[in-house]
């Protein structure tokens, strides 16, 4: 998004900073270790299979093993790095040492949720068993820490054995009893309501869908969302306290009703807009409380990195000197809560024109996850919008398969988004706003190409979209500030009229062969996952179209009327809606964009 158009002024952003992935040089605990220290890792030798561990891809094997009769074997595949993790009860403000033995290439061992600085260590190559060791101190209120191991994309299987977490133990007592009375409530095409009887001594409850833990909740009810229509699901719950997790409840099943799928928390047709929250320009500053109710998703622009490669995202609200009418932090947070109470979604948008983000290392990836989480938690936001532009994403020369990416900035972003989705659960709203160069251009060109020489950014968003398609709430490609793009009719389409939006959106809803390879097709997205990105006014960006052209584009895509020269490959009445840059520019233009949307969808 061009935040300063048309009143451009320079803004310096620190150049990429050199950094190291610190690998603490730790040794075994000395004789001075306190008597209270113990090994808190459960089944660290994998002698009881995967008991205590949650693995995205893993099994136990009898050879090779470092000791005992079993070890972990996990194989990364596609966008999965074969992470195995367990959550351990710890003491606040205490020192712990994490260690383990691994074999393979690019094997990681780490701890997250420490309350201080999360740590990880790794080996580039371990043809035989190699010990990895790191240490951390828990925060003053930290009682649970997640330890994990994982491999790297496309590098083959890794092995792990004899994982230990040494430090002060906790007398946690006994896990609670298994919950009873699990029952289903309202069932829609994409959600199932669950409730159960409270368990004495439980501090929270783990919810399982089809055998996989999907979230934890503090109460005795939840609604599982993001389901597919006309699909059968099974559910269980377990009670949790400091001692661990109970046995799971009896299983209940539910079949979702027919429908178009999508997020039940958004209206069938939604209006998405970016709000200039960290800066002002010619459009002026708009207070969040003054955003009209027509806007269903409000993207706060922008969270930006401290440097291009740091992964450390900061959200700095517009200073009074730049935005004299800016609200206080308390008023801003109150406005967020008021919007959410009215059913709106408020997200932090990362990137923009000036916010280049390159997650070149695992350390930058982990910093990205933790820093974005802090922003979401501080403001109580509903999720995240990824607006990576410029040179944030590009493909290495050997990265030719969008379904199995190899480039670190790509795989690290995918891993970070999966981590955030896992942390916040089904209700986490994830949207993306790539430019056409990074998506539809992939129909002709992907990366540097078979013979090299192409722009490595061509189509570079495709592996991210594809890897996250099951978790993606909305994709709203920026159909503006774009050069001509070839559509599925093999004709070039240019900005300025309904035709461009129709052709670009048809590609997303139909799917297309990447770089012309009929054996390598980017599958279509669901229509409820797609909104059309347009500038709100001529001031907001190149490619603005008049309201009548917006209506033509919507008519063509939802009713197959007013299509002009382009013939779509389907009709999609469930198309989610429109996105615009920006709410501020629309206000500057007397809310023309909003009024067009309200008039069309009513």
Structural features:
globular, 8 helices, carbohydrate metabolism, 602 residues, chitin binding, 9-stranded antiparallel sheet, 30 strands, Immunoglobulin-like, alpha+beta, Jelly Rolls
Task: Explain what you see.
There is one protein chain. Helices cover 16% and strands 29% of the residues. The chain contains 8 helices and 30 strands. It has helices at residues 329-341, 362-379, 408-424, 462-467, 498-510, 547-559, 583-588, 592-601, and strands at 37-39, 54-55, 59-61, 71-74, 84-89, 95-112, 119-137, 144-150, 158-168, 183-187, 192-195, 204-209, 212-217, 221-224, 232-241, 244-245, 252-255, 270-276, 297-305, 313-314, 345-351, 383-387, 429-432, 474-475, 485-486, 492-493, 512-514, 517-522, 531-535, 577-581. It is globular, with a radius of gyration of 25 Å. The model is unreliable at 4-35 (pLDDT under 50). Keywords: Carbohydrate metabolism, Glycosidase, Hydrolase, Polysaccharide degradation, Signal.
